[in-house]
């Protein structure tokens, strides 16, 4: 029997990332507050989750997205990043990039996404967890990525060039969600979710007629 070759570190990380994205989608769907969702592995998913940095000609993307159901988020769209990490690792660096990307998405593509979700299996920067997407930290993240957001020739202070209305929206509409392997198993079953959606659809039809 041939010995199975262990995956290379990069390949293994990629597989963990894909598994995390699938689990994150399952958990979001199982809240019953998502009308539909898609990942960057689904047909058509990459085109709906990919955007461009304003400067430098480089793309960025999210792992999954979808549409909420029910008040107060009825028909609001969301995108999400999934970090299937066992430890905090370098999440802080990735989160700063996520903040800068979110600013760019809202500045140019606000009709495509209103909510921005960071889903992780390992909390990070725990001493300042409640301040991760404060306006102050958003400004710091934008300064770290200012070349891609505002261009290399922009030399003004970050506070002078940032749209604070966008920052305020980010403070209110960035979500931090921490999952665990066992937690993702304690979700509504696929069969029960289908039945619940059937009841909901019938009720919505009756209310409309």
User: Strand percentage, roughly?
Assistant: 15-25%
The gross shape turns out to be globular
* Largest sheet report: 5 strands, mixed
The gyration radius over C-alpha positions equals 19 Å
Briefly, what is this?
With 209 residues, the chain is an alpha/beta fold. The chain has eight helices and seven strands, in the order αβαββββαβααααβα.
Features:
single chain, 209 residues, alpha/beta, 5-stranded mixed beta sheet, two-stranded antiparallel ribbon, disordered N terminus
Word description of this protein:
The chain has helices spanning 9-30, 45-49, 91-109, 135-144, 146-150, 158-161, 164-173, 190-208, and strands spanning 34-39, 50-52, 59-61, 64-68, 77-83, 115-120, 174-178. By secondary structure, the chain is of the alpha/beta class. It has one domain. The protein has a 5-stranded mixed beta sheet with strand order 1-4-5-6-7, with helices on both faces. A hairpin with a 6-residue loop joins strand 2 (50-52) and strand 3 (59-61). The protein starts with 8 loop residues before the first helix and ends with a helix.
């Amino acid at each position: 029997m041939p010995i199975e070759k262990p995956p290379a570190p990069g390949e293994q990380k990629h597989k963990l990332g894909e598994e995390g994205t699938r689990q994150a989608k399952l958990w979001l769907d199982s809240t019953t507050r998502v009308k539909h969702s898609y990942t960057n592995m689904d047909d058509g998913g990459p085109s709906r989750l990919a955007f461009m940095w304003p400067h430098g000609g480089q793309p960025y993307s999210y792992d999954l997205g979808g549409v909420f159901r029910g008040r107060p988020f009825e028909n609001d769209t969301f995108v999400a990043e999934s970090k299937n990490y066992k430890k905090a690792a370098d999440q802080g660096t990735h989160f700063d990039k996520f903040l800068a990307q979110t600013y760019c998405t809202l500045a140019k593509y606000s009709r495509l996404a209103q909510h921005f979700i960071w889903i992780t299996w390992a909390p990070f920067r725990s001493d300042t967890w409640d301040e991760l997407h404060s306006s102050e930290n958003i400004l710091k993240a934008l300064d770290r990525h200012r070349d891609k957001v505002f261009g290399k020739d922009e030399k003004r202070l970050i506070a002078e060039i940032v749209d604070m209305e966008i920052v305020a929206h980010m403070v209110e509409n960035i979500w931090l969600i921490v999952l665990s392997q066992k937690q993702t198993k304690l979700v509504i079953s696929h069969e029960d979710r289908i039945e619940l959606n059937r009841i909901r659809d019938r009720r919505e039809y009756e209310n409309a007629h």
